[in-house]
Amino acid sequence: MTWETYRKEIEEKGQLPEDWYILGIDLGTTHSVISYWDNTNRRPEPIDISNGFGKIPLPSVVQFREGEGDDGEEEWVIGEEAYRSMKMYPETTIRSIKRKMGTNQTIRLGGKDYLPEEISAKILKELTDHAQNLNPKAEIAGIVVCVPYDFDDASQKATMRACELAGLQDKLICLIKEPNAAALHYNFRNNLKQDEKIMVFDFGGGTLDITLFHVAERNEARIKLAVVSQGGEAQHGGDDIDATLIEACARFIEAKTGQTLNDLAIENQVELVARAREAKERLSGVQRFRIPFTFCIPPFVEQITREEFHTLISPFIEKTRKLVLKALRETYTGSLTPDDIDRVLLEGGSSQMPWVREMLLDIFSDENKIYSSERPALDISLGATYYAAMKMGLLSHPDVESEKLTVDFEVTVPHDIGLEIDTGTEKKFFPMIRRGTFYALAKKSHVFTLSGNTEEEMTGFALKILERVQADDPFDACKPIGEISITGLPVRPSGRTKLRITLMVEEEGGLVRGRVEDVGFGSEYPSSGFDESFAPERFVKTELSGGASV
Ligand SMILES: Nc1ncnc2c1ncn2[C@@H]1O[C@H](COP(=O)(O)OP(=O)(O)OP(=O)(O)O)[C@@H](O)[C@H]1O
Ligand SMILES: [Mg+2]
């Protein structure tokens, strides 16, 4: 049955049958979380995937082991065990696959090539299998999966494909953007208010995502959230802090035993990585922690205080502060000050470090503005489950009379989209659609003049469409969306061919499309009628040719 059929049956029955599960998944770079809708208590609950050991997030680590399964067949190990043994199987352990989603970079394992979505599907399958383990009679009725706010079209499609490969094609209700899920989770516990400005500070293992929302509408039946700024950094997370601590631990070992990191056996290096991470996480709760170096000869213990830890990572803390200020400064609607923000939601495992709250308090000067749930690493998956329950018709707002509550996310284009321009001396990014433009308005045209010396130069050219992820990225850092080759334009003298190029972003799915029209040049050179639409593809050159005569 498809999720729509389940929804219809739920509507007819007027309730959710016991064995039907509505799920929300946060498919993270370093950790993933699955939650289900607890209909008795009318709230989402995370699923403990460690069989009662209390470790809820599943490390997003996939490992291939050749000939170690039953009957010497290949075996896939996913999660904690794969994470713990990755140093022993460095060639066949895959981490952070999320960063590759939407690319065609394959991963070779056991003589076979795998696309990122095929690896991601293994994580999804592992997560949904755990839901099945909760209740052998469990039937998945509907599922919502999270993606980062700035996932491009190709990455979103790859995520949908991963769901398909995990056997969830009929169950996937939709994707939801991670900060939207975080805001939704917050709303059901604390109520968003009209006109509030909310900052979602999502600090994970790999990435810091900062999203600013404006609550554009809030009444009994409707919440409308508009994103006004998106910032942060793709490679700025708990993993970077672990790396600094590992270096510090290596210095302790060298001072005590004279051994360098490379002198350590592989399994001891694994141990060291785990100890460094443990120290970081423990220091979120205690002021000092004694790191046991039991694997060294001689074994020893080294104490690290929270203050020493902060000194060690102070450049990282400073950079984090700058990223917050930058997100405030670079909103689509003009610069905001900390006073304009009504609430900061702390999300992601790394936001549990006490310096995060201190740093934000220093910026926002008001403790009441900074909000964190008990388990911030789970909020996004819980938010996705709220959304899934809404979509399945199970949830109206607890405090309002109205039967149905709808949530609209007014979606804006996350990155600048434009063309590559060659000035003759240098290549430049020419912005057409600016980040922050509402999808509904994301359509821009510009008339370009074609100049050249040869017939070939005047009858054809190549158009490169680019995406500028950060507003201050230099040309070289722009990502290609697609390349269009145009041929068959009329032969005219240089400067006498004018072309109108239009780019637009589709509201559904955020796909970029475009159009090239020959607009002619006065009465002397009427339009040739060349008018072609295109849908660029990242990996294939799109060819447009006109049979235009002079
Ligand atoms: N108590 C804690 N104190 C400090 N850090 C913690 C704590 N608990 C978890 N972490 C860190 O949180 C990070 C994982 O966070 P999370 O699960 O939110 O990441 P993710 O969603 O996989 O990553 P991303 O958002 O980058 O895709 C890890 O670096 C982990 O060490
Ligand atoms: Mg995350």
Fold and architecture overview:
With 550 residues, this protein is α+β, with helices and mostly antiparallel strands. It folds into three domains: 3-191 and 374-400, 2-Layer Sandwich (Nucleotidyltransferase, domain 5); 238-314, Alpha-Beta Complex (Actin, Chain A, domain 4); 416-545, Substrate Binding Domain Of DNAk, Chain A, domain 1 (Sandwich), CATH 2.60.34.10. It is built from twelve helices and 28 strands. The strands form seven sheets. Strands 1, 2, 3, 4, 10 and 11 form a six-stranded mixed sheet that branches. A six-stranded mixed sheet has the order 18-17-12-13-14-19, sandwiched between helices. Helix 3 packs across helix 4. Mean pLDDT is 89; it is low at 397-402. Residues 28, 202, 204, 348 line the site of magnesium ion (MG).
Uncertain residue segments: 397-402
Main sheet characteristics: 6 strands, mixed
Distance between the termini: 58 Å
Approximate shape:
globular
Mean pLDDT: 89
Number of domains: 3
Helix content estimate: 25-40%
Please give the CATH class of the largest domain.
Alpha Beta
CATH 2nd-level architecture of the largest domain: 2-Layer Sandwich
> Which ligands does the model contain, each kind named once?
adenosine-5'-triphosphate, magnesium ion
Q: Approximately how much beta-strand content do the residues carry?
A: 25-35%
CA radius of gyration is 26 Å
Quick one: CATH superfamily of the largest domain? ATPase, nucleotide binding domain
- The number of helical runs is 12
| Count of DSSP strands | 28
What do we call the CATH topology of the largest domain? Nucleotidyltransferase, domain 5
Structural class: alpha+beta
